Amino acid sequence: MRGMKYRRREVCLEGGVRLVMESALSARDRVGVQDFLLLENYNSEAAFIENLRRRYREGLIYTYIGSVLVSVNPYRELEIYSKQNMERHRGVNFYEISPHIRDQCILISGESGAGKTEASKKILQYYTHICPTRNNTQTIRERLLQSNPVLEAFGNAKTLRNDNSSRFGKYMDIQFDYKGAPIGGHILNYLLEKSRVAHQNHGERNFHIFYQLLEGGEEPLLKRLCLEKTTPQHHHYLVKGNCPRVSSISDKNGWKIVRNALSIIGFEEEEIQALMEIVASVLHLGNTQFGEDEEGETHVTTEPPVQFLSQLMGVDALVLKEALTHRKIVAKGEEMISPLSLEQALSARDSMAKAIYGRAFTWLVQKLNQSLAFKDEVYYSSKCSSVIGLLDIYGFEVFQHNSFEQFCINYCNEKLQQLFIELTLKSEQEEYEAEGIVWERVEYFNNKVICELVEEKHKGIIALLDEECLRRGDASDITFLEKLEDTLVGHAHFVTHKMANGKVRKAIGREEFRLLHYAGEVNYNVNGFLDKNNDLLYRHLKEVLCQSDNPVVSQCFHEEELMDQRRPESAVTQFKLSLAKLMDILMSKEPSYVRCIKPNDGKQPGRFDDVLVRHQVKYLGLLENLRVRRAGFAYRRNYEAFLERYKSLCPDTWPNWHGELADGVATLVKHLNFKPEEYKLGRSKIFIRFPRTLFMTEDALQAQKQSIAVTLQTSWRGYRERVKYIQIRHAVIAIQSWWRGVKGRRKARHRRQAADTIRRFIKGFILRNEPRFPDNQYFLDHVRFSFLMKIKRNLPKSVLDKSWPNPPPSLLEASELIRSLCTRNLVNDYCRRIQPEWKKQLEQKVVASEIFKAQKESYPQSVPKLFVASRLETEEINLKVLQTLGHDNKYGIAVTKYDRHGFRARVRQLLLTASSAVLVQEAKIKQRIDYGTLLGISVSSLSDGFFILHVPTADSKQKGDLVLQCDHVIEVVTKLAVMAEKMHNVNISQDSIRFAVARGKEGVIDFIRGSDLRVVKSKNQPTHLMNQRQHPSHEQMI
Ligand SMILES: Nc1ncnc2c1ncn2[C@@H]1O[C@H](COP(=O)(O)OP(=O)(O)O)[C@@H](O)[C@H]1O
Ligand SMILES: [Mg+2]
Fold first, then answer.
1. 760 in a domain, yes or no?
2. Report field, pTM of the whole predicted structure over 0.70
3. CB contact at 8 A, 266 and 371
4. Residue 956 catalytic?
5. 3-state secondary structure labels for all residues of 767-832
6. What is the pLDDT of residues 580-626, one digit of tens each?
7. Is residue 915 a contact partner of residue 930, using CB atoms and an 8 Å limit?
8. Active-site residue 166, yes or no?
9. Is 845 found in the same domain as 884?
């Protein structure tokens, strides 16, 4: 409801569409002023009413006076309660809602038919729609909404003022959790107008439920209840007002709604059945008639209703009849039964009907409360939850004939008006004083005096009524009236026929008293006051009801009640006490007011009755209310709350103000450029005179919020990222240190291993010459390994490469083995790769080496010179010789042959064949020596070219040993030795060689070292000796 005022001021969050809607709405709202505070001529009643009228004509039924909402009943459906529209009021601006120190409550007042109940329903709808829901709050929300039709069916009725008039007071608490979702509810009910059950004024009806049941009840149900469909006129309790049907009410539809609501709320079928049995019982009770027999004894004249009743209530019909016509009196411990007069029986019947219905209604409210109760008490009691109370109570009522009920109802309204005065007008002015603010005092009518007239102890009307009820003897309604006259004589607000004079006297009946209520004068007829206040139900009837097997009745009537001897509180005192409690509740909360105004008496849409409205405006004190507000300030808030909300608008107060609160507010206000007439600073509060000043401030805040949000966001994000970063850093460090640990440990292990290895190595080195055992095996292995590796790296590449690593002592043997292996390998390799000629060459060279090495001086020079296949070309040899030899020639060389006689030198050729050595002169074969006959070969150890072939002299064919000389003596001798296989028969002489000459003679060749080569025949021994000089240092002698 509060939101309605400030819908224009909502911050637009959803962009353009919403803006358009907003502006359309506010354009409509510009009819008149939407807040009376903005009214130019605020002292004029006419201007006030004109504003209401103009707005009413446009369908704008709500107008504010500051925080009080004035509502004028439109008597037609408006389209302002759509869900869409409700959405717009979500997020009401804060400044209408005070800080939630206290719970809130909404007080709806206004006379009967002004629209209080409708307003309360709209508020409930608004809250249940607008508030967020949790899954489990969905049912609570439904139940809250559905509690209304049920209560209205049983507690509302058509009156002359209102077709749906509440005949009971209702205060409903809606509980919200910390998120604002409705989580429960609780209903307090006040004084149901029970008299209506048995009697209705002309043009009025009984409670809706009776008609609904008859109109809408399903056939089987009605049958069970012994009722017939659509027969209100057959029921005595429904015909008193002579108004069974009302055009604005569809009872049939009403039944469906109630039936459905009962199920949603969670009533069980048996309970609904029992409840309907009670409703039906009341109807049957109404149809029960009595008569007097000749002896004047009262008896029941209508059998069927009693039978139905006994059937429905589960009590014996006879017992019931007896109880309806007799009363039990306990006197001096003895129980006596005395018959009732016809009148008493009728009254007893009616009081039974009222009692059953009244208690069933209370039971119904209890059931509703059970179903609405928030189950989780712990949760509810937590500070996070909040409560909004909603008071919809019967409005001020004036009829032609006003009775006890109107007295109570109007007293209640008097109390509410008092509360309103206390909380708005009075407290407002007191606040200015307390805050030391200069203001203009506004006079207003304080209805306290009327409240006291009614409720004062001993002297008040209620006290006097109770006193009269208790008085034994001839106490009656008339004696009560007299008592009032005696006691209240001269009271400004109390008049009776007797007390008044002239015109007034005429207007007051003899059995009436008049109260001058704040809302107007009301005449109350005292008839029935005592009875209604006593609210007596004969003991006899109570006993019967206690025996009932209807589950609801048995819950409503207890045996203990019968035992209790104390007199129960009178009806009006109960009402007074419950009202006092209600006032305490309301006082403890922060109330918001909805003041309902009835535009006309005819329930007509669009008709605005000036007189009627003016009257209401007056008694509701709306003008005073406005004047007080205008004299003062539109808005006030204690410094702390104000600063807390707006501090962000001034750099000096944002984010925190550390000095005095008052100084902070002053700084803030100065920064906001408030004009001096716009505000005042009180002792603890700031007062802002015009709403627009506040609006501007609020708008600025809304704009600022954006940037605050960004700042908060950035710092929050920064914080979050920092936290994340620190976490990551920690993680990184942890991983790093772990990894470093691993690495470190690994390194340490390596070092240790290395140290161990070195130690083992050194130990092994020291013990290297010991036999292999664990202490030195590592070293030895290492030595072996490294030596082998060394060998591997330095293996000789060729046969001639004699290099070889020095082996350690322990591997001498192995080294040698490897070396020889290696050499063999190389040789093998070499051999495999060698050419046949070269092989031959080498074989011959080997033979030469074997024969001549270190034996003959010229050998070393011969080594590098290669042996050749032959020193003679084939052409150089005579063809004839070749033919003779059969081309068996392997080797040929030119030689000098020294004769055996005379040692003359002759040029010859020496040819070597496969089987013999042949000496050739031109074409003549001079001498042939078969290898088999060759005895040996002799050469000197010097550098000469002599070689002698020894042959056997006994053979006559042989001419003796051959003395030859050539340039390639080593080559020739080697080849010959190889061919003749005489390698071991080569004789190398140091100084002389003896040789055989034919016929047993012997020659000698002496070799003498000299500077050149000469062959000299010895003179001393002419036949035997030859001297020969070779080279400079050699001399050879033959
Ligand atoms: N806001 C409203 N919109 C439409 N009709 C309304 C509105 N308020 C009241 N009425 C009409 O006025 C009648 C009486 O209203 P109600 O709230 O029962 O009065 P009260 O509770 O003050 O006695 C309702 O039945 C309804 O027809
Ligand atoms: Mg009502």
1. no
2. no
3. yes
4. no
5. CCCCCCCHHHHHHHHHHHHHHHHHHHHCCCCCCCCCCCCCCCHHHHHHHHHHHHHHHHHHHHHHHH
6. 999 998 888 878 889 999 999 988 998 999 999 998 998 888 888 88
7. yes
8. yes
9. yes
